[in-house]
Amino acid sequence: MATRAVLADHQKMFTEGVQALLNELKALTIKVVGIAYSYDDLCEMVENPIDLLILELSMIENKGASFIAELKKNQPN
Predict the structure, then answer these.
(1) DSSP 8-state assignment for residue 11
(2) What is the C-alpha to C-alpha distance for residues 34 and 43, in angstroms, rounded to an integer?
(3) ∠ CA 22-75-36 to the nearest 5 degrees?
(4) How far is CA 26 from the centre of its chain?
(5) For residues 54 and 18, is the Cβ–Cβ distance under 8 A?
(6) What pTM, to 2 d.p., does this model score?
(7) CB-based contacts of 53: which residues, under 8 Å, 6+ apart?
(8) Residue 74 to residue 49: CA distance in whole angstroms
(9) Are 8 and 61 in contact (CB under 8 A)?
(10) Edge-to-edge, what's the strand order for the sheet holding 30-36?
(11) In angstroms, how far is CA 61 from the centroid of its own chain?
(12) How many CB atoms lie within 10 A of CB 57?
């Protein structure tokens, strides 16, 4: 089963670059299931279970620690 990943960053160039790198890693099966460019987009993306989150912490401003704690609580695996 593929690892489900969400990329979250304000910069489209960054997320596209990371997505391209992940697609080239043939030894790993990582499927990007969502890309968020804002905090609101990110909240929608993580409503479904994910395995990996690559996150620009400044995107969620001062909500970083509480956001990650809530995500871990809702998706403990």
Answers:
(1) -
(2) 11
(3) 45
(4) 20
(5) yes
(6) 0.84
(7) 5, 6, 8, 46, 71
(8) 9
(9) no
(10) 30-36, 3-8, 52-55
(11) 16
(12) 12
